[in-house]
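Notes to self after the Tuesday call (sharing in case useful).
The group wants a holo model before anyone commits to mutagenesis around the pocket. I volunteered. Ligand is magnesium ion. Logging inputs and output together so the record is complete.
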Amino acid sequence: MTEEIVKSALSKVMYPGFTKDIVTFGFVKDINIDGTSVSFTVDITSSAPEVAKQITDEATEALKAAGASNVTCNIKAPQMPKESSSHGKNIAPQVKNFLMVSSGKGGVGKSTTSVNVAIALAAQGLKVGLLDADIYGPNIPRMMGVADVKPEVNGNKVLPIKAYGIEMMSMGSLMEDGQSLIWRGAMIMKAIEQFLRDILWSELDVLVIDMPPGTGDAQLTLAQSVPVTAGLTVTTPQSVSLDDSRRSLDMFKKLNIPIAGIIENMSGFIAPDTGVEYDIFGKGTSQPMADEFDTKIIAEVPIEPGIRTGGDEGKPITFAAPSSESAKRFTEAAASIWATIEEINANGGVDNQSVQPTTPPGVSACSTGGSSAAPQSSGGGCGCS
Ligand SMILES: Nc1ncnc2c1ncn2[C@@H]1O[C@H](COP(=O)(O)OP(=O)(O)OP(=O)(O)O)[C@@H](O)[C@H]1O
Ligand SMILES: [Mg+2]
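Result:
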């Protein structure tokens, strides 16, 4: 065998779907000949497995016809687009990954974290959505600078609002200013389902979901409606917050949601005039809790006045001041979260089958005591049909 014979044989192999062969295309590389054994690489542009198979089959046949006894065809193809490998119920299948942002306690910086992590993920080149699932206290529209924007309605679906390169939806964008609603358990479940099913989210790499504080109906409904790829817990360094955060981490465990890490927020204070960092609430106090749940602190975010003003003025610090210390820490946290999500998918993804309601058909699993208490939402609100 010579290289000329090999090339001449391979020039009979057409690139699938084209009238040009793989040698003319310049796809054939690294030809190695050892007696009648031939190996070579075909560097193709398609990630479709059928293309690789057809080329391998035809190349092997052509070379054997030319006298080769042993043919090794290495196909080098681009990676398939990143897909989620998760299973189970998913009422928003165009979204590949779901990140649940939780805390045991209110006011620790969940919404601030959700906004800044979402923006940092988008800055990494990902298609990102941000769902404000805090139905009682929707703060995301203000933090994203779209408090006055009303969403466009398309038939019976609602288009997400776009800001800072991400898609966003919140109860705050659907209600009139200052309006308050009294939510019953079944209504919360229905609202969460509608946020996933009736908002026209694009094909998203990840939907970041800002949860209400605590562990309740909203968290359970979310876990039952979509396979949540990973959970993020936000805490502050004080012991009282840590006690509550343990509950949030324990909830992830019970719902079989892999933990992407802990963000210790308000961890130290950076003085705006001197840039000196002071320890106010303590720092690094969440480490034992991270160890206990076999996870890590992915960022210690200091108290920085720019975080609060950024939130109030709708100019998130990660966007408005990307070189600030807090922005850097949110960015590092986002990189770590995405690496965890990719690892989870590489290992088979998540499955929410085990958290589906087990009550027989017709019997409500709603915590509010069944459909008679909430006739308008019977059968739909709790993941049971
Ligand atoms: N690291 C920080 N430095 C300065 N201010 C911060 C920081 N983190 C959060 N804040 C401010 O603290 C307040 C509470 O934060 P945020 O609304 O994000 O908390 P939350 O956990 O979502 O609260 P809730 O439970 O009420 O939804 C906001 O005004 C926010 O701007
Ligand atoms: Mg909040």
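Two things stood out.
The pocket of adenosine-5'-triphosphate (ligand 1) is lined by residues 103, 106-112, 134, 137, 139, 213, 265-266, 301, 303-304, 307-308, 311 (CB under 6 Å).
The chain has two domains: 3-76, 98-355.
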